[in-house]
Design brief:
Blueprint (H helix, E strand, L loop, with lengths): L1 E3 L12 H8 L1 H5 L1 H4 L4 H13 L5 E5 L5 H8 L3 E6 L2 H14 L4 E4 L13 E6 L10 H14 E12 L8 H16 L7 E7 L2 E7 L3 H11 L1 E8 L14 H4 L2 E8 L1
Parallel strand pairs: 2-3, 2-5, 3-4, 5-6
Antiparallel strand pairs: 1-7, 6-10, 7-8, 9-10
């Protein structure tokens, strides 16, 4: 991806026009698995989730895409419900489940509002590959986390992945973006520090993603009604957990954060 200057977009539900275009694209869904076939994060996050979710239960996979976690946890004996805004990706996930003869539930919905998923039903919820970063404005992200909390049983566990905003400080282009995002976040209406737009991503112009600081993630969990548990810091290549050391918060490519429903 090549970053473009910030251009505020009109949104009412946390989704930018570029993201709606992404979710409506059949081509992106068809080639999604192949495009990310060698993604190191897709291997690492499965290992982290397996370590944190040892006991099978009712699992809500938010932003499930073509079903990589849906299929994995269904095979492990979990009762899995996947939620995604892309009907094209859900169609692929359904085909995978039929072929594997796995009983899963798939819901076409915005994760900020999921009436088809019963409140208080799930033991676990996961939201991986920085799906929460696709939602514009902090208030909408907080509302999404509160909606997730409503779906969980008392004491339920929520695990999410976030890209680290400060990982950009390790190259000159990233430093320039950090300076701009701090400046724009303070001065431009409708823009928050951490908002990033990409000139072109898989044929979609002005693609939006929000990058997080660790303090912002902690605030999001707290306001969403979760108590922070484990925080996994990722190495720059996203293949293993980053060991403790100086500037760990800055060196981590991203974070996988565990929260428990208060």
């Amino acid at each position: 991806m090549s970053a473009k200057r910030l251009v505020p977009e009109r949104v009412d539900d946390g989704l930018s026009p570029s993201l709606l275009q992404y979710f409506r694209s059949r081509a992106i869904a068809l080639y999604y698995d192949g495009y990310y076939a060698d993604c190191s994060l897709f291997k690492f996050d499965v290992a982290v989730l397996d370590a944190l979710l040892k006991k099978p239960g009712k699992l809500l996979d938010l932003g499930c895409g073509t079903g990589r976690h849906v299929m994995h946890f269904a095979r492990r004996g979990f009762d899995v419900t996947g939620v995604d805004l892309s009907e094209h990706m859900l169609a692929i996930a359904r085909a995978k489940a039929r072929e594997a003869e796995l009983p899963v539930t798939l819901i076409n919905s915005n994760i900020c509002d999921m009436p088809a998923a019963p409140d208080g039903r799930y033991d676990y919820a996961i939201c991986m590959f920085s799906t929460l970063g696709m939602i514009r404005r902090e208030r909408n992200r907080i509302n999404a986390v509160r909606e997730i909390r409503r779906k969980l049983m008392p004491g339920g566990k929520f695990i999410a992945h976030f890209h680290n905003m400060y990982f950009n400080m390790w190259d000159w282009a990233g430093i320039k973006w950090l300076l701009k995002t701090f400046f724009h976040g303070k001065l431009l209406p409708g823009v928050e520090t951490g908002d990033k737009y990409f000139k072109s991503y898989r044929g979609i112009s002005n693609m939006y993603l929000h990058l997080f600081s660790l303090n912002e993630i902690k605030r999001l969990f707290r306001k969403g009604g979760f108590e922070i548990g484990e925080i996994v810091y990722m190495t720059p290549d996203r293949t293993e957990e980053l060991s403790r050391g100086l500037f760990r918060n800055l060196k981590s490519n991203g974070f996988i954060v565990e929260g428990m429903k208060k």
